[in-house]
Amino acid sequence: MKSWAAIVCFAATLAAVPASRAPASDGKVPSERIDALVRDLGSDKFATREQASRRLRELGIVTRESLERAASDPDAEVRLRARSILAEVRASDFEARVARFLADNEGSGDNSLPAWAAFSERFGSSRLVRELFVEMHRSEPALLEAMADGTESASAALDECTREILDAHLESQMDLGTLASLLFVGSDEDITVDERRGVQLYPYVVHSTYRHHYNSPLWTAVLKKLVADWLVRESTPLVANQNLIFAAQLELRPEALEISKRVLAEKDTPTNTRVVAIRIIGHFNGTAELAAVEKQLSDATTCAKTEEPQSAETQVRDVALLILLRGTGQEPGAYGCEAASLQENILVQTDQPIFLDDARRQAALQKWKLWREENPQAFED
User: Fold this and answer.
1) 253 and 225 both lie in a single domain
2) pLDDT (tens digit, 9 = 90+) per residue, 194-242?
3) Any domain includes 6
4) What whole-number distance in Å separates Cα of residue 256 and Cα of residue 250?
5) CA-CA distances (angstroms) from residue 210 to 143, 207, 219, 271, 360?
6) How many domains does the chain have?
7) Does some domain include residue 2?
8) d(Cα 53, Cα 10) in Å, to the nearest integer?
9) Domain check: are 262 and 276 in the same one?
10) Which residue, 273, 253, 243, 288, is CA-closest to 379?
11) d(CA 201, CA 163)
12) What pairs with residue 315 in β-bridges?
């Protein structure tokens, strides 16, 4: 049995060994020879243990399976040496693969990294894109390997990754590789994203990506589309409401309009989300989406109330009519809309009612109906 002092001494010695001393093997070493070297990690002779460690590092990645088994060996020193050598071998192999991957600009060789096929299909294979993908692998290799294994593995890995980040309160410490990996995997429609994690973590992901990398060439090349793809994916009403607001804040017009039109078409969309979608269509002057807004004129659900200067309520159809009037170039005041509700920024929901009473509301709706009869081609349904 080796002493713990010897083990500590070994750990210090190993830490000083440079990764360059782990060249890749040609893969022709018999497995029996590798297993014998692994057994020598538990030798009573220090020189034998050191020689076996050195040789295993030199053989490289072909020793992985044997070292993985030895990592749970009953002998403490065998476990320590096996785990340390395994980490070094994996790191050395990864750097060699990265070098080949970055050098293979034509994609002519078998120099890919896990999930690269799906990533390059969406973003191309420029040097900038490749370098980002390497950063993603440095930060979240397990997540990307799971992505390459299929949707079930990727869903489980994403759930584990997001849980660990939230549990450790690392939301504000995510680097570019982690941000891009979470967006890449999370934006896949076939991947399951836990709603709680989507609401709690992805706001940090979206805001951090935008705030820290908006002025980077990567924003235009990759990151903007990654964010956009996450925002427009099918999601729960709670996440959809959140993503609607993000899309508007980041001025992602096509994505904001797409989400708005989708949530307005869904029967179970919460009132608040429905109103946000209507206002966003108005904000981005979404003429093609006005037909979806017009369908909300039958929704008498109350979305806001005020008591001063008199009691009044705002209904979903009031907001819809206001956006329709603006979208068709008409003057809302001519329909009896209150001036206080006609602020320039339509995204901001004012406390002021659009109509002071139902009589004015009904008169405005009737006037709109007559206008539509006279202008049936104002916008396409």
Assistant:
1) no
2) 888 888 999 999 999 999 999 999 999 999 999 999 999 888 888 888 8
3) no
4) 9
5) 22, 5, 8, 29, 44
6) 3
7) no
8) 10
9) yes
10) 288
11) 9
12) 302
353 falls within a domain: yes
Within a domain: residue 1?
Answer: no
Same domain, 359 and 253: yes
16-20, 68-72, 96-100 — which is least confidently predicted? 16-20
Asked if residue 81 and residue 144 are part of one domain, the reply reads no
Q: Is the pLDDT of residue 185 over 80?
A: yes
Q: What is the pTM of this model?
A: 0.76
Q: Which of the listed residues 233, 257, 281 is the one where a domain comes to its end?
A: 233
Q: Are residues 55 and 112 in the same domain?
A: no
Looking at 82, 103, 124, the residue that finishes a domain is: 103
285 vs 172: CA distance, rounded Å? 35
The answer on 255 and 189 residing in a single domain is no
Structural domain including 60 reads 32-103
Per-residue 3-state assignment (H helix, E strand, C coil) for the chain: CCCHHHHHHHHHHHHCCCHHHCCCCCCCCCHHHHHHHHHHCCCCCHHHHHHHHHHHHHHHHHHHHHHHHHCCCCCHHHHHHHHHHHHHHHHHHHHHHHHHHHHCCCCCCCCCCCCHHHHHHHHCCCHHHHHHHHHHHHHCHHHHHHHHHCHHHHHHHHHHHHHHHHHCCCHHHCCHHHHHHHHHHHCCCCCCCCHHHHHHCHHHHHHHHHHHHCCCHHHHHHHHHHHHHHHHCCCCHHHHHHHHHHHHHCCCHHHHHHHHHHHHHCCCCCHHHHHHHHHHHHHCCCHHHHHHHHHHHHCCCEEEEECCCCCEEEEHHHHHHHHHHHHCCCCHHHHCCCHHHCCCCCCCCCCCCCCCCHHHHHHHHHHHHHHHHHCCCCCCC
Distance, in Å, from the CA atom of 251 to the CA atom of 199, rounded to the nearest integer, reads: 20
